[in-house]
Design goal:
The protein has one helix and nine strands; from the N terminus they run αβββββββββ. By secondary structure, it is mainly beta. The chain has one domain: Porin. The chain has an eight-stranded antiparallel beta barrel with strand order 1-2-3-4-5-6-8-9.
């Protein structure tokens, strides 16, 4: 977990301190000041489930996220976000399969330089674990995330944003015939590509 956190920190540092000129937004692109934003992001999540009894292995999963909210001036934006990591596909015809972790909460994106689209992200919310296997037990608990990325402007107020994030949280206690399984938690390092749309602007 420590190595993963260091890796994410290094990438965020690159985003924040990379040469600003490479990501500069022209004055023409800043003629409109959008108030609202929505995004959808997809990619790979390296997730690990563990507990006080057992340290799990990090496995690759499909990662997806959806967010939306409001800009606060040029320096920041806030919003709500739903993150999800699929460990086993669900089947409507078989209720005994399906496993996933999700996190719903609030996020804050900070833009250190208003004239550029580099951002750092932090979020806090509620994590949920679903396990439909016969011996599986779901759970929930507090979850958080941190990360960063940069937006590559496309046409209008559309942008693509490579994003790297680290998320973790608790998943509660599970019943067991021998003794309760305590200290259940998850951690995930994810690399995703986000499509961002800003709207509701006005001319300055």
């Amino acid at each position: 977990m420590r190595r993963a956190a260091i890796a994410v920190g290094c990438v965020i540092g690159f985003f924040l301190f990379a040469p600003a000129r490479a990501f500069q937004v022209s004055p023409a692109q800043r003629q409109l000041d959008p108030r609202w934003w929505v995004s959808g992001e997809f990619g790979d999540g390296q997730i690990k489930l563990s507990s006080d009894r057992q340290q799990g292995e990090r496995v690759s999963t499909f990662a997806a996220g959806f967010a939306g909210g409001r800009h606060i001036g040029q320096w920041a934006r806030v919003g709500l976000k739903l993150n999800g990591w699929l460990l086993q596909a669900f089947d409507y015809n078989d209720p005994t399969v399906g496993e996933s972790v999700s996190n719903t909460g609030g996020i804050v994106d900070v833009f250190p330089w208003p004239s550029h689209r580099l951002f750092a992200r932090a979020g806090l919310g509620w994590a949920s674990y679903t396990n439909n296997r016969p011996t599986g037990t779901g759970g929930n608990g507090l979850g958080w995330e941190t990360g960063g990325g940069y937006e590559i402007p496309l046409r209008g107020h559309l942008a693509l944003a490579p994003v790297v994030e680290y998320a973790a949280g608790g998943l509660g206690t599970a019943d067991d015939p021998v003794a309760p399984i305590t200290g259940r938690k998850y951690s995930v390092v994810e690399f995703k590509l986000a499509a961002v749309c800003r709207f509701g602007g006005h001319r300055r």
